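=== RUN LOG ===
request id: a7f3
mode: sequence -> structure
chains: 1
length: 311
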Amino acid sequence: MSVSCFGKASVNDLPPVALTANGKALSTAPDRLGHLSPTDPAVGVEAIRRLYATQGYVWLKGLLRRRDVIDFRGFALSHLAASGLLKPETDASLGMASTGAFDRQLADRRLMSLVRSSAYEGFCAQPRLSRLMDAFVGGLSYLHKRKIMRFTMPGTATATPAHYDLVYLRGGTNRVVTVWIPIGDTSIDMGGLVYLEGSHAVGATMEARFSSDNAGLGPEERISAYNRNMSEGGWVSKDLPAMAERFDARWLMADYEAGDVVLHSPYMIHASTTNRSVDGLIRLSTDIRYQNVDDEIDARWGDHWSLDDML
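=== RESULT ===
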């Protein structure tokens, strides 16, 4: 089924740089690397729901106003600029990284204040997104208070390992929806999210096994991503190429643009790759969670995100 009015990139189109994650190079073979399928938000919520159920994700092109996203990128990076992470005398909204050292601790403190700000709350709850999520969840939508914003400098060695989100949200409904928003244009070489094709079924199977294994644990440990029955601290794996081979699947990548939004299932396995921006740009993004307000809510997500909150 195709409901997109956008052209799909060829599976043979290679990114401008070789994709790596946690020291591993992703294969460029067409059976291990592919592209996300874009969707026009104008197709309507029923079509979006069908795609979400079928694919495990929906990449909505231009849902948000491009100018609003770029303006917020400038606002956020300006707030972090005192740490020295931006190239001097450049427009903050470009996100051109400094070539020298920067104060990571100061940047992290500034980031923690940003995620508590009314400006960030307004960005995450803007009407275009909130109205879509009300329709998508079939009632009033609830935006979790714990919302995450990440910045990644070019050349940063580490990347987010492969995982599915429900391992961190087991204390509530399994109908939670992750919304990932690239804050600014995020070309493939900048290391935005990649998704393991068809893995929402894999994640559901894994979670069913973990639920069975965890049945004898106490309530707190049972819902923890770090309990004794989980491996790699809640991550599915840090080895993305091995996962593609194991499940005979492709990692799907995309050239994201300011205004794009991705909805993905809590069972969908995803990861980021190393920011190897050919233009020396900082990757900035946020991942937030919505659900129907009448469904059970994981109480651990009722506080603002902190770097040391172990979720």
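=== NOTES ===
The helical segments are 45-55, 66-80, 104-114, 118-124, 127-137, 199-213, 219-223, 240-246.
Residues 24-295 form a domain with the Jelly Rolls fold (CATH 2.60.120.620).
=== END ===
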